[in-house]
């Protein structure tokens, strides 16, 4: 089976790298295209045998399963280009939250999967959020999830929860890195600790915390309880954060959902 990638920007190239490094795919299994062809060529220079197509049409003509890795506003151009040569036997995997399965089904005759990856997949961890159109057969779903399992934990979610699941799984790494950055900056400002040491400590801490919350079998509440001795320093810090951050995460969810609605409307208006 030939796998295509239309769009080799940040997420497209992360997926290609991860599939190759994990052994899920060989470079020769894939055909890729990108608006700026040099970006695709740079990937091919890194992975001998990876074929760069001259156009998105060429990818569609050569592949059975095609990942669409472009931004919402770029869907219109791609769909217009490929719709007349798309086949109902082909599987399109769209990685964009703000493009609905029902719209992709309206625009293309193909079987449609919506899979939201995460930057964590680069190091073969984190989830991939999986949603499928009714056109997908059991064996199509198996092909996709077998592939994704090399680089992630594929989790089936209801499309109605795409936004909040992506907030946690895909935006989450950036949000957590932001918190870490603020923590490190404050540590440097208040104590004079070196950035290098503070960053190393913070990164190791987040890695270990992630392990405790997955293979370690702890949930976030238990973890907090285990670290905070009643009346101790952690408890004091947690209590301060409870007051300072009250409402912030509600606001965060409002913000991401408002932006999502805006993008959904924009995509719809383009067609
Ligand atoms: N970056 C991330 O962590 C994640 C991104 N996504 C989704 O992936 C999608 C792509 O995001 P990024 O890779 O971050 O964006 P990006 O801007 O880095 O990559 C998009 C690529 O598409 C190419 N492109 C644009 N129009 C094209 C066309 N007509 N034909 C072929 N190629 C074209 C661009 O040249 C660019 O290389 C977005 O919808 C985003 O929401 C999903 C999960 C995580
Ligand atoms: O739009 C999304 O849901 C994804 C999450 C990170 C970037 N884009």
TrEMBL record:
- Cell location: Cytoplasm
Positions binding NADP(+) in this chain are 6-11
BP-aspect Gene Ontology terms: L-proline biosynthetic process
Gene Ontology MF terms in the entry: pyrroline-5-carboxylate reductase activity
Q: Which InterPro entries match?
A: 6-PGluconate_DH-like_C_sf, NAD(P)-bd_dom_sf, P5C_Rdtase_cat_N, P5CR-like_CS, P5CR_dimer, Pyrroline-COOH_reductase
Q: Which domain of life is it from?
A: Bacteria
In this protein, which residues make up the domain named Pyrroline-5-carboxylate reductase catalytic N-terminal?
2-96
User: GO CC annotations?
Assistant: cytoplasm
Q: Which UniProt keywords apply?
A: Amino-acid biosynthesis, Cytoplasm, NADP, Oxidoreductase, Proline biosynthesis
Keyword NADP listed? The answer is yes
Residues that coordinate or bind NADPH: 56
EC number in record: 1.5.1.2
Pathway assigned to this chain's UniProt record: Amino-acid biosynthesis; L-proline biosynthesis; L-proline from L-glutamate 5-semialdehyde: step 1/1
The residue ranges of the Pyrroline-5-carboxylate reductase dimerisation domain are 159-262
| Function statement | Catalyzes the reduction of 1-pyrroline-5-carboxylate (PCA) to L-proline.
Q: What is this protein called?
A: Pyrroline-5-carboxylate reductase
Which source organism?
Paenibacillus albiflavus
């Amino acid at each position: 089976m030939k796998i295509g990638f239309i769009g080799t920007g940040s997420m497209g190239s992360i997926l290609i790298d991860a599939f190759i490094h994990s052994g899920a795919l060989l470079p020769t299994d894939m055909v890729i295209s990108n608006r700026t062809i040099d970006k695709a060529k740079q990937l091919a220079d890194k992975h001998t045998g990876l074929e760069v197509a001259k156009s998105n049409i060429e990818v569609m003509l050569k592949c059975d399963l095609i990942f669409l890795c472009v931004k919402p506003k770029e869907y219109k151009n791609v769909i217009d280009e490929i719709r007349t040569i798309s086949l109902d036997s082909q599987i399109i995997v769209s990685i964009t939250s703000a493009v609905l399965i029902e719209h992709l089904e309206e625009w293309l005759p193909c079987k449609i999967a919506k899979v939201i990856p995460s930057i964590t997949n680069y190091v073969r961890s984190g989830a991939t959020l999986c949603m499928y159109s009714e056109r997908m057969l059991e064996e199509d779903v198996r092909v996709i999830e077998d592939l994704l399992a090399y680089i992630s934990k594929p989790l089936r979610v209801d499309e109605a929860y795409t936004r909040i699941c992506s907030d946690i799984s895909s935006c989450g790494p950036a949000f957590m890195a932001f918190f870490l950055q603020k923590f490190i900056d404050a540590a440097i400002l208040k104590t004079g600790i070196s950035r290098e040491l503070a960053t190393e400590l913070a990164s190791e801490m987040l890695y270990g915390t992630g392990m405790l919350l997955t293979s370690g079998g702890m949930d976030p509440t238990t973890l907090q309880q285990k670290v905070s001795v009643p009346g101790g320093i952690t408890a004091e810090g947690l209590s301060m954060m409870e007051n300072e951050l009250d409402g912030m995460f509600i606001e965060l969810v409002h913000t991401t959902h408002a932006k999502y609605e805006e993008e959904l409307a924009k995509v719809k208006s383009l067609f």
